[in-house]
Amino acid sequence: MTDEFDDMYETFKALLDSFPPSESVKRLEQFGIRPDVVQRIREHHEQQTVRIKELEEPHAVVLGNRDTWYTGPQAKDKCWPAIVDLLDKNGWSREPAIRALDDSSTRVVSLLNHPKEKAFSTRGLVVGYVQSGKTTNFTSVMAKAADRGYKLFIVLAGIHNGLRRQTQARLVQQLVEPNPSMWSQLTGLDKDFTPQENPASYFGKSNKTRVLCVVKKNAAVLRKLARWLEKASDYLQDCPALIIDDEADQATVATSSINPLILDIMGCLPRSAYVGYTASPFANLLIDPSAEDLYPKDFVVNLPKPEGHFGTEVLFGRYALDGEDPEQVDDGHDMIRSIPDEDVPYVRPETRADVEGFEPTITDTLRTAVEYFWLVTAARRVRGTGNEHSTMLIHTSVNTAVHNSFKRPLARLREQATMSLTDAEFLARLRCLWERETQRVRAEDFGETKVPFERLLPELPGVLNSCRIIMDNSSSEDRLDYENGPVVAIAVGGNTLSRGLTLEGLSVSYFVRAVSAYDTLLQMGRWFGFRNGYADLPRIWMTDELAEWFRHLATVETEMRRDIDTYMTEDETPLTFAVRLRTHPALRVTAAAKMRDAVTAASSYGGKRVQTHYFHTNADWLSGNIEAARRLVAASKVSATKVEQRSADGRYIFRDVPHDLVIDFLSAYRFHEKSPENDADLITAYIRKRVATAGSLRRWNIAIVGNPRGDSFTFTPGVTVGRNVRARLAVSNPDPDFADIKTLMSRRDAAVDLHGDTAKLSEKGIMDRRRIELPDAGLLVLYPIDKVSEPAPTKTARAPLNAEEHVIGVGLVFPAPWDTDSTVKKYISANLSKVRIEEEDYSLLVSEEA
Questions:
Q1: Phi, psi dihedrals of residue 277, rounded to the nearest 5°
Q2: Would you tell me how many other CB atoms lie within 10 Å of the CB of residue 173?
Q3: CA torsion sign, 128 to 130 to 133 to 136?
Q4: How crowded is the C-beta side of 807, counted as CA atoms within 13 Å?
Q5: Contact indicator for 358, 405 with CB cutoff of 8 Å
Q6: Phi/psi at 682 (5° precision)
Q7: Residue 807 to residue 615: CA distance in whole angstroms
Q8: Is the pLDDT of residue 589 over 70?
Q9: Is residue 153 within 8 Å of 210, Cβ to Cβ?
Q10: 219/849 Cα distance (integer angstroms)
Q11: What is the pLDDT of residues 93-117, one digit of tens each?
Q12: Is 207 helix (H, G, I), strand (E, B) or coil?
């Protein structure tokens, strides 16, 4: 009986190559297979599909109950096993790396349509991380789809030749070369698409090969491809096609040239699946879902962060999200170095009129960055592990004339260094730099061993001799090429280096370019990725403002991914979910044209915690907040039904204070303008709405959290507590009137007004307890913060607060609503008036040069 089932199941799997699952079951019935065997086959196949659907990673939001026909690789497959062999040879571990890739690519293929369905037009989106292996993922998806019968593979590879060529080379190496008889190519390393004669030779029924086409997102190229496919329409009825859009947020969304052409290409293909890949999906998630466009209506897959990946959060830290314990959110690695604002005009022209004749000055920070790059390269040669290439990125402008102007000063710097290798003062400076950097970031923390200066010193002459200075932009001839042996290069560039392209062995980045949107900024982080063998050595030089932007962006990213994961568990589909994207006062979410279909999100504070972490440090601003806090405490002392003093831990609680006092306080207390989530008008509107519609938030508990060991701070006679210490995040050139303390409230503070032992409660446990004890009461917590606030010696990423007056921090905890929560809306647009912006150059999209 078992043998019969096994034989029939193999027959069923063979039928799946030609028919969707439901049709394959019918064929078995037509063969006269016993009903009980057919039922067992159906159940076994469904168990396999459930396994795929319930994979722990990656998470996905899916439209409807898509028929999962694909249950993973089979023994007869050729393309996927070839990729596994290549990854094996490149040192990938079977566990967990290859297994994770197998699972995530299987999940994506399972969401495509069966290639033998009569007609389909699928739209999906895969969200990864910058420099995290998205190309390997979509190559694996293509391999598995090819093994199952997909015929035409079109890869839209960014807008620059460099990325298109790099992608073509990867696909040829991993797909074509292991199985050359299976593939025909419409494009090559050095040629984008040009129309081929006789489409029948590619798509006719007699030709069983898969067809590969890797094209730029260029109007002239895509127009030629669309026309050629139109002429081949007689042969495309039976041609299942997979379109992979690499960097799917770039040029695809809301562009008058590229977007319609992609839709035209899909219109030529009766059986097509479009899958966008991006690490910055902001624009894609703001497309109008009801329009005939490329909104990912069928699925959104959230790839897990691979082990060992350096992402935004790892490098820059982030802020706590709702429900997180701020004390558990890391500050990031100490790898960011500050470029003073006064240095910027020396490395980037201030206006367009200044471009002509501009020559950069090698500032102290740029010199230090370059010298550190040479030291890192020498140290990596001593270690002899990891990537054989070593690259430094300098990105200050999109203007090619500015890039070219760096050639002479950098070459002069290299020559001076070569001649100074016997100079004691020069070597002493290098030694000091190396010791300082290796003390700030310890090699042992990354499983590496520190390279002593004496050991790297003999390598320096060879490093300097092999170091090339390359201008990599759309007009340069000398481009980065990692295909012909180890490279040591200082690469100066703009857009060609800022998206998609992998900078091999990137160790040092010098970055001052201001941009206007989350997605542009995130994609410029070429320093994200894997740093095997030198994870302790990368450094990034940038302005303090840019570092703060990246920290904000890390929070946006984490929140967005958490939303996708949350919707996956709530029976949502891509047509009913809406990822929230928190705003920033100086950055758009994406280009204005890409947001034309975006709606203002309704904000609800129900069940959430709000806290201040940005502060001005001038006395006038701080004194006003102290006065507002003292008035609130004095009024609360009179109005509260009960006052509790906990001398042991420096805390006061004023219970059942009228909401009017909280609203009065919010109208007087000034939140920092960089904190859009701390919006007094929005919070006040929410409180008023809850009071009016639900009778909630009429009464508040006002708490004061002090430090029993701190120097005293008096709110009102009889109410004195010790001052807290909250050091600011350290930056090399701090704005004297700005401090970011990153974390104010601890999880314990959100339970300050609860009874009983709350020390071991989780964040969720606290909110559950609040719902029982204080279902309608809000909590407002005041923190007196010492104006000096020296950090602990172990907190190397922190600096003294050094405010002119003591600081009042504020935390608010809102009860989770029992009913449909009240919401308040506000339109927030970015104020770019004081930010020097260089927008991306999209002239290449319509260039006639292929």
A1: -120, 130
A2: 12
A3: positive
A4: 31
A5: yes
A6: -65, -45
A7: 8
A8: no
A9: yes
A10: 10
A11: 888 888 989 999 999 999 999 998 8
A12: coil
CB of 509 within 8 A of CB of 335?
Answer: no
CA distance 642 to 633: 13
Please tell me the distance from the alpha carbon of residue 485 to that of residue 788, in angstroms, as a whole number: 54
End-to-end CA distance of the chain: 62
Three state DSSP letters for 234-254:
HHCCCCCEEEEEECCCCCCCC
All residues at 6 or more sequence positions from 328 whose CB lies less than 8 Å from its CB, including other chains: none
Strands 390-395 and 467-472: unpaired
Contact of 154 with 213, CB cutoff 8 Å = yes
Query: Tell me, what DSSP letter sits at residue 394?
Result: E
Q: Torsion angle of alpha carbons 403, 408, 412, 415, nearest 10°?
A: 90
Reported confidence tier of residue 693, pLDDT bands at 50, 70, 90: confident
Cα–Cα distance measured from residue 30 to residue 186, given in angstroms and rounded to the nearest whole number: 41
Average pLDDT value over all residues in the chain: 81
Phi-psi region of 698 (alpha: psi -120 to 50; beta: other; left: phi over 0): alpha
Round to whole Å and give the CA distance between 791 and 318.
19
Mean pLDDT of 229-258: 80
For residues 229 and 211, give the distance between their C-alpha atoms in angstroms, rounded to a whole number: 13
- Structure-block tokens of residue 68: 């999962």
* pLDDT tens track for 736-793: 899 988 888 888 888 999 998 888 887 778 888 998 999 999 999 999 999 999 988 8
Residue of 629, 657, 662 whose CA lies nearest to 641: 657
d(CA 546, CA 554): 12
Please state the φ and ψ torsions of residue 122, each to the nearest 5 degrees.
-90, 145
Q: Cα(506)–Cα(529) distance, rounded to whole angstroms?
A: 9
Q: What's the half-sphere exposure (Cβ side, CA atoms, 13 Å) at 437?
A: 28
Decide the pairing of beta strands 488-493 and 390-395. parallel
pLDDT at 467: 95
Q: Measure the CA–CA gap between 143 and 460, rounded to whole angstroms.
A: 44
pLDDT in tens, 5-28: 777 777 777 777 778 777 877 887
Strands (E) across 303-381 are located at 309-310, 336-338
Q: Closest by alpha carbon to 147, among 178, 122, 186, 121?
A: 178
CA distance 507 to 540: 8
- Provide the pLDDT for residue 253: 58
Cα–Cα distance measured from residue 562 to residue 127, given in angstroms and rounded to the nearest whole number = 12
Q: Looking at the predicted structure, is the pLDDT value of residue 837 above 50?
A: no
Q: Which of 639, 823, 615 is nearest to 716 (CA)?
A: 639
pLDDT at 592: 46
Strand blocks (E) in 55-190:
59-62, 120-127, 152-157, 183-185
Separation between Cα atoms, residue 220 and residue 841, nearest integer Å = 17
Residue 629 backbone dihedrals phi, psi, to 5 degrees: -65, -40
pLDDT in tens, 480-522: 677 778 889 998 876 555 454 667 888 898 988 766 555 555 5
Average pLDDT over residues 420-432: 95
| Per-residue pLDDT, 719 | 94
Angstrom distance (rounded) from CA 363 to CA 544: 17
Distance between CA atoms of residues 535 and 537, nearest Å: 6
Distance between CA 692 and CA 74 in Å, rounded? Answer: 62
**Does the pLDDT at position 820 exceed 60?**
no
* Tens digit of each residue's pLDDT (9 = 90 or more) over 522-536: 555 555 666 778 888
CA distance linking residue 426 with residue 460, whole number of Å: 13
**C-alpha span between 358 and 362 (Å, rounded):** 13
> Residues 471-482: pLDDT tens digits?
876 666 666 677
Counting DSSP H helices and E strands in the chain, the numbers are 24, 30
Across the range 121-136, mean pLDDT stands at 82
pLDDT for the residue 138: 94
pTM score above 0.70: no
Residue 46 burial (CB count, 10 A) = 13
